[in-house]
Design a protein that fits this description.
Strand order of the largest sheet: 7-6-5-8-9-10
Number of helices: 14
Largest sheet: 6 strands, parallel
Distance between the termini: 38 Å
Radius of gyration: 21 Å
Number of strands: 10
Length: about 325
């Protein structure tokens, strides 16, 4: 209603951070949610605004990420604020850049693609007692598919589970929502795609520490990212870092990030994924080929490069 809207506008007029940075040359907003006001309604004089937008996936699948009246209005305001105040935008892939220009109506010249990189905690481990320890801690099978992506519609977990059930090769899933799947309301538009999916044979670990995540990547037989759509694709790069072969859906950002360093499948075809899993777990020559390519591909991404290119954007602004 009008009263609630007015209160929301008042909250954003005086964002506390701006009262502390009136003398700043640049303010960098590092998060953007299209259906929630993500920028202030004022801009200090002689200050430049830089905004990071990772992706706009909710705008691509509106049926699964319903905005509602408030969300639709907030998106309209966000577009206006970006046009009024934002000097430079940073995003994480050429795929996301195209979406940003299309949905937000901004000029390509102000959208800068700066790739992110795996966490430094992710690294190749030597064989050791950690293997038995991590298996015991999470009651893991000897061989498994690692899935580290969540339940959102675009992640396409349904296809992965269906394929794993056909081939009888277990999935180990890392996130709290998957762990609590039986407690979630699958009638919600963002979860309705999971109705009827058999999670009974999925190892649902929930949140794990970076140390354990690294061990899981090192231990996994294969890492699979079955997404319909992504803005980037970090898990494949993390898997490549430790020498775990990767299977990805053949979709825009994943092809952009992984190039020829992983085995691709059609995300709408369960049988295609089954065949690719069979190849990667049974053909050692192909498996080792993709491991080798992965080691080379991940070298293209680093946080040092990210930092340098971010500073270049600050200079440009």
């Amino acid at each position: 209603n009008t009263e609630e809207l007015q209160k929301a506008l008042e909250r954003y007029k005086d964002i506390k951070i701006l009262s502390k940075v009136k003398e700043a040359n640049i303010v960098h907003f590092t998060a953007f949610r299209p259906f929630f006001i993500s920028l202030p309604f004022t801009k200090p004089k002689n200050t430049k605004f830089v905004l990071t937008i990772h992706d706009l996936i909710p705008l691509i699948y509106l049926n699964h990420y319903p905005a509602g009246i408030k969300g639709t209005f907030s998106f309209f305001i966000n577009k206006l604020l970006i046009k009024l105040y934002v000097d430079e935008i940073i995003t994480i892939s050429e795929t996301s850049k195209k979406d940003i220009c299309r949905f937000l109506g901004v000029k390509p010249e102000i959208v800068n693609v700066i790739y992110i990189a795996p966490k430094k905690a992710i690294q190749k481990l030597k064989t050791g007692k950690w293997i038995d320890e991590i298996k015991k801690k999470y009651s893991l099978p000897d061989k498994f598919i690692l899935y580290d992506h969540g339940l959102n519609y675009n992640k396409n977990l349904k296809t992965l589970i269906e394929a794993s059930n056909i081939i009888k090769f277990p999935v180990v899933a890392i996130d709290e929502d998957t762990k609590n799947i039986n407690k979630l309301d699958l009638n919600h538009p963002e979860l309705s795609h999971l109705k009827g999916v058999d999670f009974s044979d999925v190892y649902k670990l929930g949140y794990v520490s970076d140390e354990d995540l690294n061990k899981l990547f090192n231990l996994a037989t294969v890492c699979i990212q079955p997404s319909f759509y992504e803005g980037f694709g970090m898990p494949p790069l993390e898997a490549m870092t430790v020498g775990c072969p990767v299977i990805c859906s053949k979709t825009q950002a994943l092809v952009e990030v992984c190039e020829d360093a992983c085995l691709y499948f059609n995300p709408y075809n369960v049988d295609d994924l089954v065949e690719k899993i069979k190849i990667i777990i049974s053909d050692n020559k192909i498996r080792n080929e993709y491991i080798k390519k992965g080691f080379e591909q991940v070298k293209k991404y680093s946080w040092d490069k990210n930092a340098k290119e971010t500073l270049d954007v600050y200079e440009k602004a």
